[in-house]
Specification:
Malonyl-Coenzyme A Acyl Carrier Protein, domain 2; 4-stranded antiparallel sheet; Alpha-Beta Plaits; globular
Length: 335
């Protein structure tokens, strides 16, 4: 059975996330303990307002996601090697911040501690890029529901020389727009006139837009010093929606530069998530497992490919349900 793993991104956070995994899984507990008390406090006790802060959100979501992934591996090991052999991991993808979880799961980032360091720096750089001289946020994001081309025409009309872009192409019916506060207000008015519904998102600035330009080169320099490794599985990247390596086999010494370029660019580029899901299905993936807080990505999959099976792992209950479903599916196929 060919499966694809999807890793949650920023916006999926909620108070108490990861706590049941910490209490029920030794592997997940170790991830949290190694990350430190501050992140545990943010995840388990933090308010929605605190968790919206970029420098809090990014490391917190990364750690919850990696804890859920380790709990998944732990659960598979308890089923035995024959169960693991019946599952073929065909590809991995992560949504925005979640791409760092995907890189960790694929071994490009070879330990969670390294990944956490990168993600902390990323969050701080993006927060600074999206703030004015007084530390106030300059922008935001909003989800628009309708035809992609109609939404992009509304964006073009509302931009008026400012920062405003379609940045997350999530499904056939949802595109996220990011930009300055004034530009977003104009966009809402233009969108309403074109019968496009718009809802503000709980994020602190305009991610994946030109507003992130100041963060790109400093992030690239951090990544270049991170000694990245050859992946052990196929990674579908946000920037193209397809294989991060374009089907090419990179030598160990060339991996760090290539991934650093791609991931630095990702901070200010659109996320082609609909294309990512479609390309993973094109390559034979028949079951997706969303890993990390929430089920936002599951919703995108259902809207893009209604016939595809989607499971998730965010807490003890969802882990148990997913493992039971996978067991039943492999049994039904006689694998």
């Amino acid at each position: 059975m060919k499966i694809g793993l999807l890793f949650a991104g920023q916006g999926a956070q909620y108070p108490g996330m990861g706590k049941s995994l910490y209490e029920s899984s030794d592997a997940a507990g170790k991830v949290f303990d190694d990350a430190g008390e501050q992140i545990k406090e943010w995840c388990f006790e933090g308010t929605q307002e605190t968790l919206m802060l970029t420098h809090v959100t990014q490391p917190s979501v990364y750690i919850v996601t990696m804890a859920a992934y380790q709990a998944f591996l732990e659960a598979i090991s308890e089923f035995g090697e024959s169960f693991w052999d019946s599952i073929e991991l065909t590809g991995i993808a992560g949504f925005s911040l979640g791409e760092y979880s995907a890189l960790t799961a694929a071994g490009v980032i070879d330990n969670v501690e390294k990944g956490l360091g990168i993600v902390k720096n990323r969050g701080e750089l993006m927060l600074k890029a999206g703030s004015d001289a007084e530390g106030n946020q300059k922008g935001g994001m909003a989800a628009a529901f309708g035809d992609r081309q109609t939404i992009l025409r509304c964006v073009d009309e509302a931009r008026q020389g400012g920062i405003l872009e379609g940045v997350n192409f999530n499904s056939k019916v949802q595109t996220v727009v990011a930009g300055g506060k004034e530009e977003l207000e104009r966009f809402k008015q233009v969108a309403a006139a074109n019968k496009v519904k718009v809802f503000p998102l709980s994020v602190s600035t305009a991610f994946h837009s030109p507003m992130m330009e100041p963060a790109i080169e400093p992030l690239r320099q951090i990544l270049l010093k991170s000694d990245l490794k050859v992946p052990i599985s196929k990674i579908y990247c946000n920037v193209t929606g397809d294989d991060m390596f374009g089907g090419k086999h990179f030598a160990e010494e060339d991996i760090t530069e290539h991934v650093s370029d791609m991931m630095a660019k990702q901070a200010g580029s659109p996320v082609y998530w609909q294309e990512t899901i479609e390309n993973m299905a094109r390559d034979g993936i028949e079951t997706f497992i969303e890993i990390g807080p929430g089920t936002i990505l599951s919703g995108f999959v259902k809207k893009t490919l209604p016939q595809i099976k989607i499971l998730n792992i965010e807490d003890e209950e969802s882990l148990r349900k997913t493992m039971q479903t996978l067991f039943e599916m492999t049994e039904a196929k006689g694998e």
